[in-house]
Design goal:
The structure holds two protein chains of two kinds.
Chain A: H1 6-17, H2 24-27, H3 48-58, H4 61-82, H5 84-90, H6 97-119, H7 129-132, H8 134-158, H9 166-183, H10 188-217, H11 221-240, H12 277-295, H13 297-307, H14 309-314, H15 319-345, H16 358-368, H17 373-397, H18 403-416, H19 418-425, H20 440-448
Helix pairs in contact in A: 4-6, 4-18, 4-19, 5-6, 6-17, 8-12, 8-15, 8-16, 8-17, 9-10, 9-11, 9-15, 9-16, 10-11, 10-15, 12-13, 12-15, 12-17, 13-15, 16-17, 16-18
Chain B: H1 2-5, H2 25-43, E1 49-53, E2 66-69, H3 70-93, H4 100-118, E3 123-125, H5 126-152, H6 160-178, H7 181-205, H8 210-233, H9 237-240, E4 248-250, H10 260-264, E5 266-268, H11 269-287, H12 289-299, H13 301-306, H14 311-337, H15 349-359, H16 364-387, H17 393-408
Parallel strand pairs in B: 1-3
Antiparallel strand pairs in B: 1-2, 4-5
The chains are: A mainly alpha, B mainly alpha.
Transmembrane segments (chain A): 56-81, 93-116, 136-157, 192-213, 222-240, 275-293, 323-343, 349-368, 375-393, 399-417
Pfam families (chain A): BPD_transp_2
Region (Disordered) (chain A): 1-46
């Protein structure tokens, strides 16, 4: 929304009229036509949205850790407040305060113990190592789509774009992969590859629309992605109840036929565990995004546009093309999460609810991971653990799984507001000139030469 | 048509005094609709007669049903639309604007033909359709009014959905405990303002990106309300989730006006409050000192600061006010529409409201009209699915979102947000 202001809207016009002329003259903002020579010398300051990128990427790991701790504390408070035993003991708090404190400890301790049992190691079954370690594999299985979608959001974020459209990209990719997986019989290995590629293309197209609209018309990507989420949802709902499209033949439920054996992601840790090929794919995707951002020319352009699109344009980078490129790749990465859902987790047939909130979770994963590939990987595992553990928490302690949403939102709020976390923990404000290693900007300047 | 499109926009460079801008958007858009009409209403024409019922059984003055044969209506309407399109092309060639009434006429003809076609062979209760549309639009209108105020003062409000949902939750809770729906409404406004407080303090005090805060707030509210619903309400719904409802009140005399009466004046009190809110927000924004200051802060905070307006305070309190308005709209869900709170019951209404804000170009009246259009599309979908229509309901539901994408892409009209919206005001 903030983008269609005068500074950014006007340079769009000359580019559209003379599509061939993408030189500095054509791209120079129309507002400085009185003194075009001065334009390259003093570059416009980066828009606010791009300064956010710098803050998020440059934030310290300490803040992330403290944000997680704070969020868990808030979650604990919520659990304690709604616990019936705590409420009961609170009525005679002044007579026997120990009762209430004990009840709070029971409620919160029990909840987080169940969270640990459900996500890392089930110590109640320590005698059987295979069973005790199963929660950890469930965590990794839950983390798989989160990491993939988180990478997609993080990559777009590094270019200064908010990709809120995870839900739509996941649904379209899952529908595309699911159609091939369920209705197009192919020989073993080939079937899996074709379904995967078709799914990724689906996600890439849905993401690419956003980049294209942003580049051609300056439409704000947040609005476009939110709207595309709903369009995708209704489109998939329609296809799922239309015989001959996605709906399983002879069924009346809005659900597709189960995936054929040949299209399913094979399990990689034996049939007892949920872990499948998708986890290996997200490891590959993480390495790919790391390489793309840190070692490739395209990644350099991405980061340059993310730091300051005006400066990048002056330096000869085609900013509009960059928006399209990054959204295509981001869409494909988020699409990988959709493919994982269709061919790995919901092999019994896809439904309109299969995104399961991953589209939003991906935003939190990307922010917690500081939009860096490795950070996203571990943030995804943390949220995968929260998701896996929440199920056990609900079963064992009766705490609704929705608590995870609350904890996640708190984590993001705290990460997005480092001054708040610093003031809560009374940390000093960091010196902007202090660097553990050589400042990043200098290294970039060397490459630019 | 392609030749027409690439014609240079200014009409020659010789007369700089009167630069005539030829806009071919409207005639081209009209042509697209004529093509759609020709294909749907004539190509895929349906036999049968559609009866438009213009009064309800309880009306004093009974109007006769209007029968329209589907195919004939389609042909006549398409011809009429084609005529208007030709007129629009002529106007555009003379570089004159197309009057609003022509566009309105075009839309009405298209809608009538569409309804006749979609409901061929059935009776359409027009009063129920339009009154229902107004009811469905009510929370959207409250949401878009809050969105307009918030964005006009310079804070992007993606959290409309969260404010509506928190309003719905607190309204149900408070109205159940007190047994008074007005207390529930007040609670809902407080809840919306509370969500706004987080949005305002994070974005104005800590300069956190407003879009991130908005997105997160939506999820935080979904998580909190669902958590509290499961722990508190679902086990004890008689005490906590059985609110006293707002019933429909027919206003004497006014409700007996043919057609308009049953639509506008047989609604619940929240709808009547909505009428007041729309007029009040419009008047306050454009006719009072408060509104002038608000808009100044949203358009050019530095200038506003220079003349002595407290930018941050203005933003903070107006974002709170916006939240209160949206929260009050949220009460509609639990106190008027359903009669209890359900998990995630707003179901994307906040985002449709956001769409209405953008499609209505940050203007309270236009945003209200946009919300009414979106509400009409939603209600039409449910009416048509009862009558049995050839249009899949999903496509009707998709309409607001598609229209919004066209709007932000600049294909329909030109929408420019307040200049400083989304930017924190940082003084060094």
């Amino acid at each position: 929304m903030s983008d269609t202001n005068d500074n950014k809207a006007t340079p769009d016009k000359p580019d559209q009229l003379s599509a061939a002329g993408t030189g500095p003259e054509a791209a120079a903002p129309a507002t400085v036509t009185e003194a075009p020579a001065a334009a390259p010398a003093e570059t416009q300051e980066a828009p606010r949205q791009n300064q956010i990128v710098k803050e998020i990427v440059g934030g310290s790991a300490m803040i992330s850790l403290l944000a997680v701790v704070l969020a868990l504390v808030f979650g604990g408070i919520l659990i304690a407040l709604t616990d019936p035993v705590v409420q009961q003991t609170a009525t005679y708090f002044f007579a026997r305060p120990g009762d209430m404190i004990g009840a709070i400890a029971d409620a919160v301790g029990g909840a987080y113990a169940a969270l640990f049992r459900g996500s890392v190691f089930n110590y109640l079954r320590a005698d059987d190592f295979a069973a005790a370690i199963r929660p950890l594999t469930a965590t990794l299985a839950n983390a798989t789509p989160l990491i993939a979608a988180g990478l997609g959001v993080a990559l777009a974020f590094r270019v200064g774009l908010f990709n809120i459209g995870g839900r739509g990209q996941i649904l379209i990719a899952a529908a595309a992969a699911g159609y091939v997986g369920a209705y197009v019989p192919l020989p073993p290995v080939i079937h899996l590859i074709v379904a995967l590629v078709v799914g990724l293309i689906g996600g890439a197209i849905w993401g690419g629309i956003v980049g294209l609209l942003k580049a051609r018309t300056g439409a704000h990507e947040v609005i476009v992605t939110i709207m595309l989420n709903y369009i995708a949802f209704y489109l998939i709902s329609f296809l799922l109840r239309t015989p001959g499209a996605l709906q399983a033949p002879g069924q009346s439920n809005p659900r597709s036929a189960p995936m054929l054996e040949t299209a399913q992601f094979p399990k990689i840790a034996g049939d007892a565990y949920d872990l499948n090929l998708g986890f290996i794919l997200v490891i590959v995707a993480t390495i790919y995004v790391w390489y793309l951002l840190n070692r490739s020319a395209m990644g350099f352009q991405f980061r340059a546009v993310g730091e300051n699109p005006h400066a990048a344009r002056v330096a000869g980078i085609n900013v509009k093309a960059t928006y399209v490129k990054v959204m295509v790749i981001a869409g494909a990465l988020v699409g990988l999460a959709g493919v994982q859902q269709a061919l790995g987790n919901f092999t019994g047939g896809i439904a309109a609810g299969l995104d399961a909130g991953i589209g939003f979770d991906a935003i939190t994963v990307a922010l917690l991971g500081r939009s860096k590939p490795v950070g996203v990987f571990f943030a995804g595992i943390l949220f995968g653990a929260l998701k896996a553990g929440a199920v056990t928490m609900q079963a064992a302690e009766g705490i609704p799984v929705d608590i995870v949403l609350v904890v996640q939102s708190f984590i993001v709020l705290f990460i997005a507001a480092p001054p708040l976390v610093r003031s809560i923990f009374r940390l000093p404000t960091p010196d902007p000139n202090f660097h553990w290693r050589k400042p990043k900007l200098d290294r970039k300047a060397e490459v630019a030469k | 048509m392609i030749d027409v499109k690439t014609t240079p926009v200014p009409a020659g460079g010789s007369a700089p005094a009167t630069i005539a801008v030829r806009s071919w958007k409207a005639p081209i858009g009209f042509s697209a609709f004529v093509v759609i009409a020709a294909v749907l209403f004539i190509g895929l024409g349906r036999d049968g007669v559609t009866n438009f019922r213009l009064s309800t059984n309880s009306d004093l003055i009974q109007l006769p049903e209007i029968p329209l044969p589907a195919l004939a209506t389609g042909i006549v309407a398409t011809a009429a639309m084609a005529t208007i399109t030709v007129y629009a092309f002529l106007r555009a060639r003379e570089a004159k604007k197309i009057p609003l009434w022509v566009t309105t006429l075009f839309a009405v003809i298209f809608l009538t033909a569409f309804l006749t076609w979609a409901a061929a062979g059935a009776t359409l209760p027009m009063i129920g359709l339009l009154a229902g549309a107004l009811t469905v639009s009510t929370p959207l209108i409250f949401g878009s009014l809050g969105g307009v105020i918030s964005e006009r003062v310079g804070v992007v409000n993606i959290a409309i959905e969260g404010q509506l949902l928190s309003g719905a939750f607190v309204a149900a809770l408070v109205a159940s405990i007190t047994g008074n729906p007005f207390a529930g409404l007040a609670g809902a406004m407080l809840a919306g303002a509370l969500v706004s407080t987080i949005l305002a303090s994070f974005s104005i005090k800590y300069f956190v990106d407003q879009i991130i805060v908005g997105v997160v707030l939506n999820v935080l509210v979904i998580g909190l309300t669902s958590f509290l619903f499961s722990t508190l309400m679902s086990g004890n719904s008689a005490a906590f989730n059985a609110p006293a409802r707002f019933e429909r009140i027919a206003i004497p005399l006014l409700s007996e006006i043919p057609i308009l009466g049953p639509i506008l004046f047989r609604q619940s009190i929240i709808v009547y409050l909505m009428y007041i809110a729309v007029v009040a927000v419009w008047f306050a924004l454009f006719k009072t000192r408060w509104g002038l200051r608000l808009r100044a802060v949203g358009e050019h905070p530095t200038a506003a600061d220079t003349v002595g307006i407290k930018v941050r305070a203005t933003r903070f309190w107006n974002v709170l006010l916006a939240g209160a308005i949206v929260g009050g709209g949220g009460a509609f869900f639990s106190l008027a529409a359903v009669g209890s709170f359900q998990k995630e019951m707003t179901n994307g209404a906040g985002f449709i409201a956001l769409a209405a804000v953008i499609f209505g170009r940050w203007d309270p009246i236009r945003a209200t009209l946009a919300a009414l259009l979106f509400g009409f599309a939603t209600n039409l979908q449910s009416t048509l699915s009862i009558v049995g229509s050839p249009v899949p309901s999903e496509f009707m539901l998709m309409l607001p979102y598609i229209v919004t994408i066209f709007a932000v892409a600049g294909l329909v009209g030109y929408s420019r947000p307040p200049a400083a919206t989304g930017k924190p005001y940082i003084t060094s």
